[in-house]
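Lest this sound abstract, we think one record worth quoting, the chain in one-letter code, the fold tokenised, each line plainly labelled:

>
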Amino acid sequence: MHGALRSAALAFVVSASAVAAASAQSYPNRVIKLVLPFPAGGPTDGAARLIADRLSAELGQNIVIENRPGGAGGTVGAKSVATAEPDGYTLLFTPPGALVTAPLIYKNIGYDPAKDFAPVAAIFSSPQVLVVNPKVPAKSMRELVDYAKANPGKLSYASPGFATQPHLLGEMLKLQTGTDILHVPFRGSAPALTDLLAGQVQIFFDTTTFLLPHAEGGELRPLAVADGVRSPQLPDVPTTAEAGYPKLRGTYWTGVAAPAGTPPDVIGKLNRAVNAVLTSKDMQETLTRLSAKGKPGTPADFGAFLDEERRRWAEVIQAAGIKAE
């Protein structure tokens, strides 16, 4: 009897493994949905479409973008992926908000970022840039700080949403400079930029790619790059460290995650496809033009990176006393 049970169990395991292997070999055999937890038009949207186009060619299957904005830091879109079928056909493309910063602040977002997602791959990273509306009489970070101190509560900074990385950078700016600046959250970078250009808000952190056209056109004034090195696209703009604020640093990054329970073979196939795209000469040249760096690696590498990001930003959130609104 026991021998028969062991044989049956072994047969089941072998059968299940064969089914999983066959599933991975046939994957993908239909359209893949890539969910973006932010509106169309922002830096995340542009990055996702850039990657999706090349990843589609690599996998030999169409990838459609679904913009699902809402919630704190993109939590609405993230929840839709966390609760999706774990079959590799619904994926999350996200910057730090949904998987790192928002869950550190909001407790009832409907998912656990560490338990409900399987890391697939990091995509790229790019430093944030501090810009101001030209009507602000400041041409350096020091002048901005002096002006803010002389006019407490009169300046405001925009963010693409409460608990996003630009929000936390804005709070770091206030902490390290002792200034009183109002936070104005938006539903994405695009609407934040619209009000920044109109002068409704005065300060903004976002990527070089997103802000460069407006900086070059004189519509915005870049004051500092929140990184340890200058941007090739803005060689005359000092880093925050050069400006005297070495701790004011933040990297905008993107990555892909799948619902927890997605077969490891499918995760592996997606990861290899992403890495192939990132290491191609064409993509490397494109990322260089965008002041970004590809981050090829394993799913485990991305998971470890997420854990480190959560630890780092948790310290900032605690120091700034940021709480759910």
The radius of gyration is 22 Å. The first strand starts at residue 32 and ends at 36. Confidence is low (pLDDT under 50) at residues 16-20.
